[in-house]
Amino acid sequence: MTRGTFSFDVFSGGSVSFDLDTCSTCETKACVKACNAPNLACVLELKDNVPALRVTKEQAARGGCIECLACELACDTDGIGGITFSLPMIELDAHLRDMEAAGQVPGFKRR
Amino acid sequence: MAKLLEHQAKRLLRDLGIATPKGKVAASAAEAVTIANDIGYPVALKAQIAMGKRGKAGAIQFAASADEARTQAGALLGRNVHGRTVNELLVEQRLTIEREHYLAVLSNPVSKTPTVIFARHGGVEVEDVKHGDGIATYDVDLTIGFKLHHALELVGKAGITGASVPALARLACQLFEAYRRYDCMLAEINPVAITARGPVAADARLEIDDDALSRHPELGLEEGHEVGDRARTPLEKIAALIDAHDHRGSAHFVQIDPDGALAKAQGKISIGFDGVGTGVSLAALDELVAVGFQPKNFCDSSGNPTASKMYRITRVILAQPDIEGYVFVTPLSSQQLDNTARGIVKAFKEIYPDGQPNIPCVLCFRGAWDETALAMFEEHGIAKSPLVRLLGRDTTERDVAVAFRDLYQQWRKQPRAIAS
To answer: N or C: where does chain B have the smaller number of CB atoms within 10 Å of the terminal CB?
Structure first.
């Protein structure tokens, strides 16, 4: 049985999503440890062996999640890649497409 | 600050009950004549540009007939005034003025309060009025507000007596309400024209706090004026959205050399820049310029911004074309620098393969959680890049600039004639 995805929105526009099938096999649960560092928001906890919110989704979206990105970065280094912290920049993406269509190379793509 | 045009400011003041001359905006000489005929002569024709001293520049003319209105409007439209092209005129009834006063509410950086100023003598030469010569000021305690009795006292202190005092005091309260309602840095009526029907705002100026623009979609101002008199660049508009969507910390991004012309003219290298706080940013910019680099942008990402905000502004900075480096520097900051670093790390990992940048990058973290911040670049493999140099608490802005110069020269493998 698959456990699906758990996600919540964040204040600045964006979302955090957890692939619970992946997360359930993660041995470190590094995201939860990172979130519960003394200087961070402490909104994640373990429930049924996967990450879950200890606040409501509404509270998280109002700023309970401080968007420190610690969960995602800890997952990158010590976990198994179950988290996606999505922070869309629609206007920038459109501008980059326009730049490239006009033959301009964004700084991060220069050779 | 976002400066409203005179006709826009007057519309807002009218909504608050402040009397203004009858008038409309014209975009052509024919339209100006139609409006003038409707209002009745004589009329004033006023260039709508967001600049002061229009009268002295000849950007305000008067007409006593349709022929004069057509001639004056034709001469004003399309004219360049203070580097700006006149595209619109405010055609207004010319007032019969008994006397002129000055009234303003400004954000006073010295008293750290709104300050209401009333001067007995207003008009075009108001700057020349000596301090104390009929000028009264009142620093407003925002927990109390600016009440009618404060305004009466203010007007009295400026030496005004007689029947106009109550009306002028009410006007001061109304202008203070405009200042508050629209998050102004400056709300000014100059002159306050005393006419037979009472005080009238003959000219008006409202300047809105850039950081408050997102609170006022009704004004239709998508742009602030931290960029000066030019229009915002596409990247500046994109960066402004970051703060508009999230009040936590700031990411003030201004392109000081958007097309690279300054760097080219001075034989310097364009780079992207981010600093925590304006002071350290300016000090670092000075040092970078001195060793041969021209930051393409200024950015102040301070006030403890979220990591997500840092991620977004870093993506904007690194999107600038033609940059040949990136410098990030903090002062000895109380900001939680591990959060700051996470945003930069995420941006690097997303836009660069394996987080390894394509241009020299110097990142200097000094302050709260700086060691944690620096360690993240190690943990995520970014620091192993030969194009990345990390600096900590034991460095100065000069060290940052020199480290960047050395890294740049290694990258180019061709030492340039750069000042030591």
So the answer is: C
Report CB contact under 8 Å: A92, B248: no
CATH of the domain at A38: 3.30.70.20
Q: Is the ipTM of this complex over 0.95?
A: yes
Judgement on whether residues B86 and B103 belong to the same structural domain of the protein: no
- The residues on A that touch B, with CB distances below 8 Å, are 10-14, 39, 63, 66-70, 72-73, 76-77, 85, 87, 89, 91-92, 95-96, 98-99, 104-111
Q: Which of B93, B115, B149 is the last residue of a domain?
A: B93
Domain containing residue B71: 22-93
Question: What SS3 state is found at B389?
Answer: strand
Q: Number of structural domains, chain A?
A: 1
pLDDT of residue B258: 93
- CB contacts, 8 Å: B246 with chain A: 11-13
Same domain, yes or no, for B296 and B320? Answer: yes
* CB-based contact, B321 to chain A, within 8 Å: yes
Asked if B127 and B31 sit in the same domain, the reply is no
Q: Tell me the average pLDDT across B345-349.
A: 98
What are the chain B neighbours of A41 within 8 Å (beta carbons)? none
Mean pLDDT of B166-179: 97
Q: Identify residue A86 by its one-letter amino acid code.
A: S
Taking residue B204's Cβ as centre, other Cβ atoms within 10 Å add up to 26
Can you say whether residue B24 is alpha, beta or left, with left for phi > 0 and alpha for psi between -120 and 50 degrees? beta
Cα A74 to Cα A69: distance, rounded to the nearest angstrom: 9
Q: What is the number of structural domains in chain B? A: 3
What pLDDT, on a 0 to 100 scale, did the predictor assign at position A38?
Answer: 83
Please give the Cα distance from B272 to B323 (Å, whole number): 6
Q: How many residues does chain A have?
A: 111
pLDDT beyond 80 at B131? no
CA distance B366 to B331: 6
B13 inside domain: no
Contact B320 A107 (CB under 8 A): yes
What count of CB pairs under 8 Å joins A to B? 102
- Please tell me the distance from the alpha carbon of residue A16 to that of residue B235, in angstroms, as a whole number: 26
CA distance B66 to chain A (A): 48
Q: Within a domain: residue B87?
A: yes
